[in-house]
Amino acid sequence: MTTAIDQDRLSETFGALANSTRRAILARLADGAATVNELAEPFEMTLPAISKHIKVLERAGLVRRGQRAQYRPCALDATPLAEVATWAEQYRPVWEARFDRMDDYLTQLQQRKTGPR
Amino acid sequence: MTDQSGYPDAVIIERSFDAPVDLIWQMWTDPEHFKAWYGPDGATIPVAKMDVHIGGTRLVCMEMQTPDGPTQMWFTGEYREVVENERLVYTESMSDANGNVVSPSDPGMPAGHPSTTEIRVELEDVGGRTKMVLTHAGVPADSPGAAGWAMALDKLAAHVDAYSDR
Fold first, then answer.
1. What is the ipTM for the molecules in this complex?
2. Which residues contact B46 (CB under 8 A, 6 or more apart)?
3. Helices (H), B1-145
4. Looking at the complex, does the CB of residue A43 fall below 8 Å from at least one CB of chain B?
């Protein structure tokens, strides 16, 4: 089972990714760091609107901002994505253990009624 | 990362049980049977309410012993597909004891994040034994975000892999 903290973090990652503009920004950053101006270029959006999307990505830990001068280039941080990739797989051992118990329980049940079958 | 389940992010487990298919069906749909196996080790299932028909709701309580005393977790959901001895699909969300869904904080959260998951159980009789396929999906296949997910996750898979190798 995942912890509550992990779940909050995951929700934030999924929330950040559930937007096509933000996914496009991430795809662009996958090719290398970029300034907000560069990121805004392909979109018909104002700079403040793009900045808002970048802030969401920053909060989710998907984007880091450099400290250099006023450009503060954005860079991709894939750490939360690795957590998304393993989200479903975290449930595998939980289910496997449940089905082991189901197996044991079925054996008990069927032994109990060994009479007429 | 897109698998044969049709879901963008899912775990799939196939198991075979030495029991007839109707008994395996009861494992999932009869609360008394369900309670016997569902709880993780060290946990019990004090409550399991199941209204097993399409649109019917379920409410399950899991109680765990922790150093601070017993902790209860509640889960609610809705049955989406019910084909006796063949196929069961239901959703699952964390909730309170009254079945009110507890949302993971952010009120501006768009649809498609995994506060609701979907569980699919498929059963098949194989000469008196039962083959069972479980699919537990983080993003329900018909949610608005699902298609976008598959694309986004595929595209970013390479970066995830690169990170995992570090």
1. 0.75
2. B61, B63, B72
3. 21-29, 31-37
4. no
